[in-house]
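Anyone else keep sequences and structure tokens together like this?

Example one:
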Amino acid sequence: MKRSRELREMLREGRGYRCESFRGAGVRKARDVLRYEIYVLGNEDVLWEACSALGIPRRDCDFDRMVAEIEGRFGEGAEALWLATERDARENYCEPGEEPDEYEIPEGALPIWDLGDEGALFAWRKWE
């Protein structure tokens, strides 16, 4: 996956931002986040991008295989979270006067979908 300037910035700084007022349902389990993205929002591209990031050939790429690979790497409680740069979270997702929440991007986190200034979807081991 080619990494956007925004994704490189988040990885370099080790943190990303989001505003919970914008679709912040509190759902973090990777399986549930990805199911919502693909089957509710219709973002099938996340399936292909995630498989690519995980090294799964397109011909073998399906939801179950993708989730199994994520959970194999990060455990059954693997989490997925959309993050953006602070600037982009403020501009694209925060309500007027709302401050974005800062999240540490853990070592070993895997960006599975990169939308540049719209943010990136990360998968990682559940925080304890």
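And example two:
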Amino acid sequence: MKRHTVLLFSLVLVFCLSVAPSVMAASAEDEVLQVATNFVKAWNTLDFELLSSLYLHSSKTTEFGPANYNPFLYQSWEVLEKEWNAIFKLPKGTDAISYHNPQVTMLGDNVAIITLYHNFIYTDPATKKQDIDQQRITHVVQKINGKWLIVHHHASSFLSNEQDPE
């Protein structure tokens, strides 16, 4: 009887462990959201290596920046790398971003879209005056060789009445 109890207990334990989600394993959505978190971290610390690690280094990688900053389509990591390097040469502490309301939409096992809002805060080093640019952000990410990478980034600013061209 004791032998049957141990066997039954072992079978139940194996079954429970096989069907229960692992506490340690992150969901695909969590992995994708980490890309957005690391993007903000890279920006706020001016960590170009971290930022670079988030992008697919390919001629197919694209980006649209906010129209008030850059209305053009950047195509290829080589072009983006030059742009990001120039941005990251700004004096430390003058820019910061935070993100809000992130949403992950899985389009498949290896493709997802991240949508969120950024508050981009620029502090003028001379006057200490702050300007806040609120932006809508979309990252299209693809899982390549087990890692989620940005293949397209799009940012658009909310326009205030003063900025509205009409």
